[in-house]
């Protein structure tokens, strides 16, 4: 894994994740909670690249309000490696800001972009994949490497990557021509993708060089690029905090995919697909899919008693007992101040509940 020792890792940990309410909220986003085992998913994301990657080469991007939480959970990281956004402007500005900082230190060295709220079962394959991506970027600096997860089923709630012919092979891992993106297809289309060897799930993992990404901002998002250059120039100077506070809130609120990735020429990207055992646990149903051994199994955390209950998620984050009788296909989540009960089929409506219920005087539940 020698390539890993020479690359930098950026883990994004800024989102709130309302689809996992009431656990995930503005004050306690899901990436800082112990959803799986005794560590947060942020801690697991860092652990995943250790010990090959030194802490000095691991960077966390988060909101200013979460800096102390990140530092408390990851005390080994250098303080300057926790990069905060003064205002949430989606991932487009956040990636550009980080790439400007990293480019100032080493413009063409490989960087992996990862996320703090995912699960990865096959750690060795994951390390091999980003290592192969880094080796490719070392030789092809003006390219993206998109890492795909071999599909486990016809998932219509994820993005898919279409790839073409094999370009090269690194340490037994094939890299293919990138063709196109497909975001949240209908079920019939997802079934076709699942049956084809040319499609994989899109975890949103990239390996790239910072300067290449900045050049793409310059080409496809010139107004944002102008602001990013000012932030880059001021970084490391006494004026940076004031410049960041002035410039960052003016940057367009847009995803990284929409700002840059989907606009980049297909020939500037390759696809590396493998089975990482990857799951995006952005919803309660996704968490169930990731952790359940069988469809009828219950997923339970905390002080819980169940009777004649099947295929149900019961997560209890309180000291009191939560008990269920005769439930099937349900989600029950108990926190210190909220209890939510819903059929799994209604999980997408959590966002609607929040939109209609939370506001004055219910802002404390956001």
Describe the structure.
The protein has 12 helices and 17 strands. The protein is an alpha/beta fold. The radius of gyration is 21 Å and the shape is globular. It folds into 2 domains: 2-284, Spore Coat Polysaccharide Biosynthesis Protein SpsA, Chain A; 292-365, no CATH class. The chain has helices at residues 2-5, 41-47, 67-73, 91-105, 123-139, 187-195, 210-220, 222-234, 240-247, 256-259, 284-291, 350-357, and strands at 8-12, 58-63, 82-85, 111-115, 118-120, 144-149, 159-170, 173-183, 199-208, 269-274, 278-280, 299-301, 304-307, 313-316, 322-325, 330-334, 339-343. Helix 2 links the parallel strand 1 (8-12) and strand 2 (58-63). The model has no long low-confidence stretch (mean pLDDT 93). The strands form 4 sheets. Strands 6-9-7-8-10 form a 5-stranded mixed β-barrel. A 4-stranded mixed β-sheet has the order 12-14-16-17, covered by helices on one side.
Structural key phrases:
globular, 4-stranded mixed beta sheet, Spore Coat Polysaccharide Biosynthesis Protein SpsA, Chain A, 26% strand, 366 residues
CATH superfamily placement of the largest domain:
Spore Coat Polysaccharide Biosynthesis Protein SpsA, Chain A
Category by helix and strand content: alpha/beta
Name the shape in a single word: globular
Low-confidence parts: none
CATH class of the largest domain: Alpha Beta
